[in-house]
Amino acid sequence: MNEKIYIGLDIGSVSVNTVIMNANGQLIASDYRRSRGQVIAAVKDSMRWARESIPAGTIVAGCGTTGSGRELASALVGADVVKNEISAHAAGAVHYCPEVGTVLEIGGEDSKLILFENGVPTDFAMNTLCAAGTGAFLDQMAARLEIPINEIGDMALRASGSARISGRCTVFAESDMIFKQQAGVPVDDIVSGLCRSMVRNYLGDVGQGKKIREPILFQGGVAANKGIVDAFRRELGMHITVPENYGVMGAIGIALLTKAEMESSGRKSTMRAFGEIDAAQFRTTAFACGQCANDCEIVRFENGGTPIGHRGGRCGKWERL
What we know:
The protein folds into three domains: about 5-90 and about 250-280, ATPase, nucleotide binding domain (Nucleotidyltransferase, domain 5); about 100-240, 2-Layer Sandwich (Nucleotidyltransferase, domain 5); about 280-320, no CATH class. The radius of gyration is 21 Å and the shape is globular. The two termini are about 40 Å apart. It is an alpha/beta fold and about 325 residues long. The protein has helices at about 40-55, 70-75, 85-95, 135-145, 150-155, 170-180, 185-205, 225-235, 250-265, 275-280, and strands at about 5-10, 15-20, 25-35, 60-65, 80, 100-105, 110-115, 120-125, 215-220, 240, 280-290, 295-305, 305-310.
């Protein structure tokens, strides 16, 4: 009998993360790629990678999507399961740390916090419209300082001090940073201050009113930044654990949720063939329904000009078409 494998895709604001997991819940392979505003192309590329990475003698028993672009990716690949990113990150965290108390997750343009009791998520929060507590904040500040983003963490760790930088707004933070530069504050200290500023913003926004409990897992692409990890440890006074696969935990979670749902239901996967996904002439359009007072904006997914799905309606009418 062919061994079953499961594909999980996490489509975020700046990247597409894809994993392949086996029937035992073990990670076989993972892929991270920047979408650079071309989400459809990035999803297609990730599925080409998946086709080449699937071990011989295995079959795809399920495919799931999560993240802000989950509906788009689902329509393109024919996903079996679609879940929000809170559910996916929670499932991934519990899989690797059953006793987890808190998940800190920071991505490119959004961030979230999930609280657990006895392995069950009980509360969560996500960032507001401001990006000051996300990876975009660090990218912007690194560009202003003309420092490669992958050097920020080491610079923060070797700083002898930490400059006080405003973290409530990227505009104020940049003004503060420029003033510190003009005053001759060492760049390492400024970088350390930026990391502390970002963490304070996260805790004051996403973590406001939340009782953070250990063990704490730090997930998402920003977890690669040692300066941010150290800043969380300093601000919370707690140990922070960065999982081995911190960057693809959402994809791991949706793959696990897909595995559980497909096994319990006994359904066969409806995922499109890899060749069909690759050849798809996929695009999205939007229009106002206008058939009731809600006047919902409907997003239509098309393949070769033929509608294959709709999202965005409140009454479910378009989703049934």
